[in-house]
Input
Amino acid sequence: MTATSGTMASGLPARRRVTPVAVLAGLVVVLLVLMVASAGSGAVAIPFQRVPGLLLSAPVDGQDALWRSVLVEVRLPRLVFALIVGGGLAIAGTTMQALFRNPLAEPGLIGISLGGAMGAVIAIVLNANSLWTMAPAAFAGSLAATALAYKLGGRQPGVAGVLLAGIAINAMCASVIGIFTTQANDTQLRNLTFWNMGSLAGASWTMLAWLGPWVAVLSALLIREWRSMNALLLGEREAHHLGHAVRPLRRRLVVLAALLVGPLVAVSGTIVFVGLVVPHLVRLTTGADHRWLLPNTLAGGAIALTLADWLARTVVIPAELPIGIVTSLVGGPFLLWLLLRKGT
Amino acid sequence: MTASMNRRAVLAAALALSAVGAQAAPAKRIVSLGGVVTEIVFALGAGDRVVGVDDSSIYPAAAHKLPKVGYYRGFSIEGVASLNPDVVLASDQAGPPEALEQLRRLGKTVVMLPSVPTVDALAARIDGVASALGEKAAGDQLVARIREQVAAATKSPGGQNVLLVSSRAGKLEGAGRETAADAVLRLAGARNVLAGERGYKALSAEGAVSLKPEVIVTTTMSVGAAGGLDAFLAQPGIAVTPAAKARRVVVMDDLLLLGFGPRLPEALKVLQDGLAGRK
Output
């Protein structure tokens, strides 16, 4: 822990060339441009200049009606879904990295992701293969695994206990997944595989109406903790001396992150890499002060997943790629490039 | 595939049929999600109306050349919509359910077809496709022919002890009861040595030996994955079975053997010839 905390501390830039507000504004502009571009492309070719008209006015003919319903029923919910999932995963990743003072930390570390996967797998094998049964099962699995990791690991001083308990819980979740996988039939096995690669295909306005406010509220609560996250970077003892009640703070952050990521895993499957990499990209480019890092990662995660979904939907038309594959495929080389560039 | 699931599948097919029956014009642009569904469309002579298929539609060769909208369990909604189909014919295994719901919301007619491996469900599959295509007569003919040929080919069970294995991922899996494989074996009059298990089960080397199969039935892809028939037979467990020692192996095309489609009579004939040692 302490060895790696140095790298994070050194990530704090001495001076900035651009103001933080400008960076955040820039990210939001990039996101908006990306969203418009993404809304205008897909398997159904909708003329770009017609998009605003289709959204604002009643359809005049059959072609318009189809375009409009593709836009409104399929493409836009998916776009918003990508935005929400990306932002949520990234901000939860930032929280985990602050909490564990480790740049390798991500939401999966304390069982949030594998616990969710376990719930989903059990639901699939018990033949409850619909989003409305899988999602609560995944959410329950996610919360149970995290609660267990926190409860059992929290008895040790510091965060190492939670981390170790998380590793043990993850191993147990993985083996439960394994047991259910061996019991699964052919159909279920394929469903499991697809769930594991992540998908945004289940997006609908009803689901977003639940998910959107949930992610917004939890993100706001996490952003409010920016001061305590900055203090945690210095070390738990230092944070304590700076006047932060460390144990309640740790519990608060774990609970908030789990509540945020659980539903995301539940509805989108496993989308790896975003929670780990986006906070890094943002930290490398805009610095480690959580006051700006948290909102920036929120925007950065939304950008990353909007971009990934755009690629997933458009490179193999009329088929599409699983989004989890795109995030790793694009995110990996991008992070390496950024690291190499910073190294010179 | 329990009795209740069967009943549910037939009911679903009946509902699909009634929905289609109310439709006036026969579908001119078809998207098919599921290899066997595609096979039925082509068997009914409507192959030229298919504008898109899923990745599992590998027979006949003409289907293979059509635009692919992804695997039927994770197809692209917009991909299907972009092909502008009048009707989407989908196996009841296609999905996710939300994606099919989205298609309906786009105003697409989605016809779900039962996938259980029984002759009755096959008849319902064909009926469903035929009604959607306005080819009811051709459908009835095909069903009648299949029922007749299957009835003629069906033998009373209790023949040889057969083990049906697949090893597509390099690991042996035996077919237990309630699988398409078990259903085909039963129709062919063979005794499935793994009937005590439900579904496909990972097969250990010792497990395979203890089953003492006289004949092993497997698929072309499994033999290919093992690296040829000799390598397939040399696998631990398989190698010491009576079947492997006598080289009594029947290798059949995956979709033909396990598809439970319009080629079922042909599948039974090939399987029975193989079991009897006729090539």
Summary: The radius of gyration of chain A is 21 Å. Confidence is low (pLDDT under 50) at residues 1-12 of chain A.
